[in-house]
Amino acid sequence: MVSNANFEIIINEKTCKRCGLCIAFCPKKVYTADDDGKPIPTNLDACIKCKLCELRCPDYAIVVGGDE
Ligand code: SF4
Ligand code: SF4
């Protein structure tokens, strides 16, 4: 999980299969892949909360704006 004061993106590490779709579809390049291909929302401040990543994830592993 990566968060700032009032917004977060939660990625379920158990269900994420490292397919990279969320990284590819994010229009703001919020994610970078770690060495294992796991998406890390390193550029969270750029997120426009469009939820494309959440909607495209085939494993429902992403929740955008978890605490809002
Ligand atoms: S909600 Fe949209 S802008 Fe934010 S990380 Fe997901 S795809 Fe990118
Ligand atoms: S789209 Fe879902 S399963 Fe694929 S890398 Fe992103 S979080 Fe993981």
Cα distance spanning the termini: 14 Å
Cα Rg: 11 Å
What is the chain-wise order of helices and strands?
A: EEHEEHE
Arithmetic mean of pLDDT: 91
Bound molecules: iron/sulfur cluster
* Spatial order of the strands forming the largest sheet: 1-2-5
Question: Which keywords apply here?
Answer:
68 residues; alpha+beta; Alpha-Beta Plaits; 3-stranded antiparallel sheet; two-stranded antiparallel sheet; 2 helices; 15% helix; binds iron/sulfur cluster
Question: What would your notes on this structure say?
Answer:
The relative contact order is 0.34. It is globular and about 30 Å long. It has a single domain, classed as Alpha-Beta Plaits (2-Layer Sandwich). The strands form two sheets. A three-stranded antiparallel sheet has the order 1-2-5. Strands 3-4 form a two-stranded antiparallel sheet. It contains two helices and five strands. The mean pLDDT is 91. A hairpin with a 5-residue loop joins strand 3 and strand 4. By secondary structure, it is α+β, with helices and mostly antiparallel strands.
SSE topology:
Elements: E1 2-3, E2 8-11, H1 21-25, E3 32-33, E4 39-40, H2 52-56, E5 62-64
Antiparallel strand pairs: 1-2, 2-5, 3-4
This protein binds iron/sulfur cluster (2 copies).
